[in-house]
Amino acid sequence: MSLTDAARQEAYARNSDAAWLLCISITHPTLQEPLRLVGDNKDMVRTVGGQSVTFKAFPFEFVLPGDDPDNPTKVGVTIYDGPVDGDGTTLTQILRGLRPAPQLTAECVTSKDPDTVEQGPFDMTLRERDSVEGQITAEFGYEDILDDAYPGNTISPATFPGLFA
Description:
This protein is mainly beta. It has 2 helices and 9 strands, in the order H-E-E-E-E-E-E-H-E-E-E.
């Protein structure tokens, strides 16, 4: 995926007032609406799917996967816990016990044009999670298609009798 011309100019500029921001959305069937977080010190309003939505400013770290072809692609996320809504419910309280695993979508935008996704969306599934007081450490990964059997079906006289007639 390539960058827009405006983003490329900002990236190559000697000085720029545009910040590169990572937006993450955590979705699950039991959540009324996705948890939308942005790695910034203030909330951000973006247009997603034709609707204006707010991404809550939240401190988190996003560790990109390495280039090792022998290891499946995994992304590390450390989110510093805190209230995510007006009633004081924390992120740990919301994420604890979600079954099946929640989905995470990551997108990179610039502060000058938050409605234009420069990189992404990257859709991943929660693989592992650990929470200690004050932070949640999670590992997300892509759907593991490399372990699926190929071809998907076994071709035998019992399953494909016409091939063996």
